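Standup notes, protein team

Yesterday: finished cleaning the Aspergillus fumigatus set.
Today: Fatty acid desaturase domain-containing protein structure.
Blockers: none.

Input for Fatty acid desaturase domain-containing protein:
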Amino acid sequence: MLTSKDVDDEAPSAEEDVSSSGQSTPPSTIFDSDETGDQVHLRRVGIDTPMSRDSSLSPTEPELSRYKSAEASAAHAISSDLSKYPRLDKKSQDEVASKYRQLDERLQSEGLYDCPYSSYAVESIRYLVLFVLFVTCLHYSYYALSGLFLGLLWHLLAFTVHDAGHLSITHGFHTDSCIGIFIADFLGGLSVGWWKRNHNVHHIVTNSPEHDPDIQHMPFFAISSRFFGSLRSTYYDRDMKFDTAARFFIKYQHYLYYPILLFGRFNLYRLAWAYLLDPAQAPRKGAAWWHRYLEMTGQVFFWYWYGFRTVYLSIPTWSSRIVFVLISHMVTAPLHVQLTLSHFAMSSADLGVDESFAQKMVRTTMDVDCPPWLDFLHGGLNFQVVHHLFPRLPRHNLRRAQPYVKEFCRDVGIPYVIFGFTRGNKEVISRLGEVADQLRVLEECRKVAAKDLIGGRHGR
């Protein structure tokens, strides 16, 4: 575990949500001010429920008092949050966009879009070592260790799939797609086609509760109380029901975060098959029409070598098989932590169409600080701000690009948020805990409302 590092001088202690008239369902916003020394943490609550409208609650009730006092501070808190970013007028945002284009040209002139293939040679050595350890331990019946090394191999391979999905290896569509299919489908049982469909949307509408599938994890997680309103996902084309299961999980989501992520890879199998078997999702026409069939071949191959040859034939007992499968899958949980770490604690507010792309990407994303020698373990996901600004920039050049991005942010007045790994995890758990607390307050208010309603009827 890395030691926690504070935010750099240019960044606030936490990035927060701000309200917007451009939202499709504008939330009511509550901020809790918690001053510690010189740091003020402004925490967004966006409640879009009947509680934000007229209520029959007695103003003497403590739960209602907490709600009302927080609501009263919203105007000041929103103003404070908006002051962190450039104005949304055309002139200010045009300046941000212009300097962003200049930065892109600078990175191109510095050769940072050129893939350093020697870095993949080093990556390949790591893959080979882990593969040999996996096979050797399997041969000598050290099944738990074998599963550990296979899980680590999958963890590292996922980063190259990410690179290929963004066409940042060869910059060729079919070549990089085939690299991704070979690693994801043939070696990992995942679908690079599903990932590209999902991830491209995430990059366009980052941290939008209605539109970004990467933060739509109901009933297990909600990073904003806007999810309490059973929002409709435009990606999945269905309502994200705020039902009994959601109420249970979200109340304890800050405790369940890591345990649930231990099983994240199993969900990726489900999503892969849902994508490949649905003709409405996988491409049937155009240049990529054949990718679906190659992926299906890869899926069959994966379940042959992993499910049949490795788990069933090579491991003699069911208890050992279960241990091997669980360890090999749970070891990949840090990947799911990394995927959520850069966004869960960041703003999920929609500032409307006037906000520039560059500002939105930085506002909704954080970087994770680590020493250069550990970059391979993060796979470039520790430079998510840089990556979201320049998705096709090769992973191994992201550290070189980071100082340029920081300079750009200072120049245009956009806070650049970077935490150490430990601090970043604390921010995520804190955000999940805040939303869980908001749900508890809301349920207490509803109980009080029900008592008042029943009491009023009996008093007549």
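Follow-up from PR in the comments: The first strand starts at residue 28 and ends at 36.
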